[in-house]
């Protein structure tokens, strides 16, 4: 079985390969093709993988190419994990928004819109090529903003593209753990858009355990989301929001904390990863050790500014390792081997949330089998959540329209309609700032 990884020179690729190395079952991936535009990054990551594979019998063979069509042909699965504009682009997304006094963040608010505007045209081109060159492949989209990018690709690939995120499963696991439940036995009632969802219940043996958490100040106080959002606010909501909702519910504090931070997250990661890729120019560099040190440093500072601002502390170590690669592998196994399972994924709505149309990509528990991911029926969201979901989906639709038409006016509309952008004039200046900074936005006229 052949797996192609787009963005194959990316820093997180060794995590994916590490997960593949642990898979000994029949029907596992035998060939990995790394694709990237940057040959230097590709060879750095390929060296890490070859050290990871040393001494592992049956390790998947790795090849690398900068030719996209060659990478796609014959693929059974394609992981799309690209970062258009690189971390330099992410840093600019963050900086330009913060200078306007609005949230500058990778996926939420103005920064997420800029990133989406840059990424959608590239993702659509990839999707078109896949439809032509590898029509039977399943595409697992890691690329952020994951919900928006998955929806863009689904217009060309239908249900064969599925978006993933590690945050809902991580949240479900933390809630289960604090309640003393086994995460494997728990049903997590979660729904929304990517980075904009709520856990409304957690059922064990058919009984909802979440009220027990919401009623217990000690439990809430020792729980990460309890610290982040405050026990009182969680009780008011009657649900546990995805951590990214901190940017909505505590927007002022988050913006201020980011403005006061020495570096934005993107700038921090850019500098840190530059050091890794730079070190890898030396032919004698210990690839895996260099990568692993950089990774440890990255994880220790995960979302640290907003967490510190909220007094939420750092993430527990075992939560950090349960990320994207595990979700992606579980999804790939379920499809490839018809190993039925349930995962929270980004898929077409199909009537799951009645306030959105059938083609809107949402994040929801899905049954997964050889036929793909099937969203399960969920209770409707409360009005306040429906309001946010509909507003942000409307923004995503303007981003898709701007990417398709190249209209700057439509891009302004996307920013202006976002609940975290507080003036049309700010939206206009953001489009000025972003088109000036990003060559990838030159198509907006
Ligand atoms: C979580 C989110 C991802 C996001 C990442 C950012 O894992 O689910 O969508 O990309 O955090 O982490 P970073 O270390 O890049 O700031
Ligand atoms: Mn995510």
Automatic annotation (TrEMBL):
Keywords: Cobalt, Glycosidase, Hydrolase, Iron, Manganese, Metal-binding, NAD, Nickel. GO terms for biological process: carbohydrate metabolic process. It comes from Streptomyces sporangiiformans. Residues 190-421 form the Glycosyl hydrolase family 4 C-terminal domain. InterPro entries: GlycHydrolase_4_CS, Glyco_hydro_4, Glyco_hydro_4_C, Lactate_DH/Glyco_Ohase_4_C, NAD(P)-bd_dom_sf. Binds 1 NAD(+) per subunit. This is 6-phospho-beta-glucosidase. GO terms for molecular function: hydrolase activity, hydrolyzing O-glycosyl compounds; metal ion binding; oxidoreductase activity, acting on the CH-OH group of donors, NAD or NADP as acceptor. The keyword Nucleotide-binding does not apply. Belongs to the glycosyl hydrolase 4 family. The keyword Plastid does not apply. Its cofactor is NAD(+). The active site is at residues 166, 244. The record marks 106 as: Increases basicity of active site Tyr. Substrate binds at residues 90, 144, 275. SUPFAM superfamilies: LDH C-terminal domain-like (SSF56327), NAD(P)-binding Rossmann-fold domains (SSF51735).
